[in-house]
Amino acid sequence: GGEAAIKNGGCGGATGFHSPMDIFDLFFNGGFAGRKRERRGPNLIHSLSVTLEELYNGTQRKLALRKNIICDSCDGIGGKKGAVAKCAPCRGTGVITKVQKVAPGMVEQYEERCRNCRGLGETIDDKDKCKECNGRKTVRSRKIIVIDISKGSRDGMRYVIPGEGDQEPNVTPGDVVIVIEEAPHAVFKRKGSNLTLDMQITMSEALLGFQKPIKTLDGRTIIISSYPGEVVKNGAVRFVLGEGMPITKSPKEKGSLIIQFLVTFPDAISIEGARELKKYLPAPAPTHIPDDAQDVELIDVRQDQQRQHGKHKAAYKEDDDDHIGMQRSPQCVSS
Questions:
Q1: What is d(CA 76, CA 17) in angstroms, rounded to the nearest whole number?
Q2: Cβ atoms of 85 and 121 closer than 8 Å
Q3: What distance in Å separates the CA atoms of residue 69 and residue 41, rounded to the nearest whole number?
Q4: CA angle, 86 as apex, 83 and 87 as ends, to 5°?
Q5: Strand partners of residue 66
Q6: What CATH number should be reported for the domain holding residue 223?
Q7: At residue 152, what are phi and psi to the nearest 5 degrees?
Q8: In what residue span(s) does the CR-type domain sit (predicted)?
Q9: Which among 289, 298, 269 is positioned nearest to 281, based on CA atoms?
């Protein structure tokens, strides 16, 4: 049966398994060692500043990319054929093992990059080095890549361009990763798939109504209205469906435009105007004032700041006068 086959070496003659442990060695101790693990280069990460209009409408951007590519002159060898030799000091490993004493009876072993070959594991005589890359095997190159930014893309979203990273002999190039950075907008702020907007209106507009145009991110003009009889309070929030950002996976669908109203009040109003307003505004709630209550002055913060500033200037002037007086006073002379 199966157990007997394992005890007897199973298919040992055909596969080279001579004990049950050979199977485990195959999977856990580097069996199939002939397959070297593929080396992969690092990704190149670039930030790309994009306006809110571009994120709303979608756009195509070009990016000039500088990267290393395999030298065409030497095909990535670094010099003439046969001129590359294994580095003797590191035996081709690119690192040198060193031992240092850290305490009596204790040593520490560590590795450092081989200085002779700069960690490459091989050397080339100067006379045999490639004139194009000077033995480095790669040269710098400039490439224009095109990125299609889809509608509704968000800040921090990543666009990956496979295999466009730095090239190196016997190494699979990494990817180019473009990270979207949303540039601040003068009017709108983005919150997920919604757009927010702070809109200032006057007190008369808050009470009597208004019509306000808003230019959208795709160049249209929409009108928002408040009609007489509607009162818009300071800090009130209204929203417009379908006028937010496109949703990435469903660009025909959009979030909302959220508007917060900030009511600005006049600095002063005439007595006649106050009388007219009194006819239409609710009367103030009655307040009980005790007979022994005392009237005090209510000072505007800005007036108080100006007053305090004047006091400080006067105090500094007094200090200067005192200092001058001390200088002019006669000094005592000891006999």
A1: 41
A2: no
A3: 12
A4: 115
A5: 142
A6: 2.60.260.20
A7: 85, 5
A8: 58-142
A9: 269
pLDDT (0 to 100) of residue 311: 61
Tell whether 201 is covered by a domain.
yes
**Distances from the Cα of 236 to the Cαs of 223, 239, 260, in angstroms?**
18, 10, 6
Q: Is residue 21 part of a domain?
A: yes
Angle, vertex CA 134, rays to CA 132 and CA 135, nearest 5: 115
Per-residue b or e along 76-85, where b marks 16 or more CB atoms closer than 10 Å to that residue's CB: bbbbeeebbe
Distance, C-alpha 64 to centroid of its chain? 20
306: phi then psi, degrees, rounded to nearest 5: -65, -40
pLDDT digits (tens, 9 = 90+) for 130-187: 999 998 899 999 999 999 999 999 999 999 999 999 999 889 999 999 999 999 999 9
DSSP 39: P
pTM reported for the whole predicted model? 0.66
Beta strands in the chain (DSSP E): 44-50, 59-70, 84-86, 95-103, 106-113, 122-124, 138-149, 158-161, 176-182, 189-191, 194-202, 210-215, 221-226, 237-240, 246-247, 250-254, 257-264
Identify whether 196 is part of a domain: yes
The tens digit of pLDDT for each residue in 76-125 reads 989 888 888 999 999 888 899 888 888 888 889 889 999 888 888 888 88
Our count of domains for the chain comes to: 2
Is residue 200 within 8 A of residue 262, CB to CB? The reply is yes
CB distance 255 to 193 below 8 Å: yes
Last residue of a domain, one of 212, 241, 264: 264
Q: Per-residue pLDDT tens for 235-290?
A: 999 999 999 999 988 989 999 999 999 999 988 889 998 888 888 888 888 888 89
- Domain C-terminal end among 247, 264, 281: 264
CA distances from 117 to 75, 84, 124, 142 (A): 20, 11, 9, 28
**Is residue 159 included in any domain, yes or no?**
no
